[in-house]
Write a structure and sequence with these properties.
The chain is of the alpha/beta class and about 375 residues long. It folds into 2 domains: about 190 residues, 3-Layer(aba) Sandwich (Rossmann fold); about 170 residues, Rossmann fold (3-Layer(aba) Sandwich). It has 15 helices and 12 strands. The strands form 2 sheets. It has a 6-stranded parallel β-sheet with strand order 2-1-3-4-5-6, sandwiched between helices. A 6-stranded parallel β-sheet has the order 9-8-7-10-11-12. Helix 1 links the parallel strand 1 and strand 2.
Length: about 375
């Protein structure tokens, strides 16, 4: 334990997908486990006075990805422009920076860490009004292809997960090289421990999965997996011999529709979940996962040594995640439900092929070390 440091952190996040808040929670736990004189407060950056922004970012994010991905692509491309970023900052800052300033003062923070690019400029403004006595840093939760909006501010400390992200920030966004550090990827503690055969049997029995069947997990973070219903329907039509576990998250419509589908196809071994707190048990139980290319879910699956099929990704920012899985021969990008079903069948029917993927998973160049990240952050004085 480190006994001689007094630090009060505030971690800022938004509920746009699960990657931002999950990384914040992991780092909070790691700091508080290792440094008994450090405390961390999590804060959703949009409070009641910013309810319109909260609605736009959190509900609008889900709606755009689910119903209008083309519109999201246009927004993403426009957000690359410095003019767009500056205009957007002017809209957010007037109310957000005031509410953040109040929170920083009330909590008596020494350090602020932003886990969402939309909050960083407001945090800069709030800290400036408080006399620039608070250290500010940003954890960029997109590992490989981070949107330029992350790097709007030039003179604060950034932490990224890959050399690729660092190079892009320096070359394309003008961030001074000494202001950006490559740090280990953050994933939940529960995912770090390998699953032995006895534990696997316990998990399968606990969640009602047959022990003698292959299991496919469909998951897409807190908002569920777009297109999950079509994929499961394809499996039902083809009388899939494997089991299916679908995590719908906040997507109640898909949850209800899958429950009805389960009644219509009683021979399909289908298990439907809403929002769960045991994702680690589901990932460790599965033999293959079909996911959206969110960084948290992707790294949790790959670190658990499970082959991954990516059925969808966010335009631009998650492209690097797709490429990472495909280029390291442990995953595939497949959009059509029929092709997804065929790939799963191919994977499960050829032991040699499955073993080859397992070998590739063992060699993945991923550094995951929550304690090291905590140490790096604590050493930033």
């Amino acid at each position: 334990m480190v006994q001689n440091i007094q630090r009060k952190f505030m971690f800022l996040y938004l509920n746009t997908g699960g990657g931002h808040v999950s990384a914040a929670r992991v780092l909070k736990q790691s700091i508080e486990d290792s440094y008994d004189t450090a405390a961390v407060e999590l804060l959703n950056g949009f409070d009641r006075s910013n309810s319109h922004l909260k609605l736009f970012f959190e509900k609008g994010y889900h709606a755009a990805l689910t119903f209008a991905p083309g519109a999201f692509s246009l927004i993403y491309e426009a957000a690359k422009l410095r003019f767009t970023q500056a205009s957007f900052s002017k809209i957010i800052k007037p109310t957000t920076s005031v509410s953040l300033e109040k929170k920083f003062r009330e909590y008596g923070v020494t350090d602020v860490v932003s886990f969402h690019f939309a909050l960083t400029t407001s945090a800069v403004s709030a800290i400036r009004r408080l006399g620039n006595t608070i250290r500010l840093s940003v954890v960029v939760t997109d590992p490989f292809t981070a949107p330029p909006a992350w790097f709007y501010e030039k003179n604060i400390q950034y932490y990224v997960y890959s050399q690729q992200a660092k190079n892009d920030a320096v070359t394309n966004c003008g961030i001074p090289e000494h202001k950006i550090s490559v740090a280990p990827f953050l994933i939940g503690k529960k995912f770090l421990t390998p699953c032995n055969p006895e534990e696997l049997l316990i998990y399968k029995k606990k969640h009602g999965f047959p022990v003698n069947k292959k299991l496919v997990l469909l998951a897409g973070g807190g908002e569920g997996l777009p297109g999950a219903f079509a994929i499961v329907t394809e499996c039902a039509k083809n009388k899939a011999k494997f089991s299916l576990a679908v995590v719908c998250g906040r997507d109640k419509a898909t949850y209800n529709n899958l429950k009805l589908l389960k009644l219509a196809y009683p021979y399909l071994d289908l298990h439907v979940f809403g929002f769960v707190s045991f994702m680690d048990e589901l990932i460790k139980s599965c033999d293959c996962a079909v996911i959206k290319a969110g960084p948290a879910t992707l790294m949790e699956v790959l670190h658990s040594k499970k082959p991954v099929i990516i059925s969808t990704y966010i335009h631009g920012q998650e492209l690097g995640n797709v490429r990472f899985a495909v280029e390291h021969n442990c995953g595939w990008f497949i959009q059509k439900p029929k092709a997804i079903f065929e790939k799963i069948n191919n994977l499960f029917s050829d032991d040699q092929y499955y073993d080859k993927i397992q070998s590739a998973l063992e060699k993945l160049p991923i550094e995951i070390n929550n304690e090291k990240f905590a140490r790096i952050l604590m050493e930033n004085r």
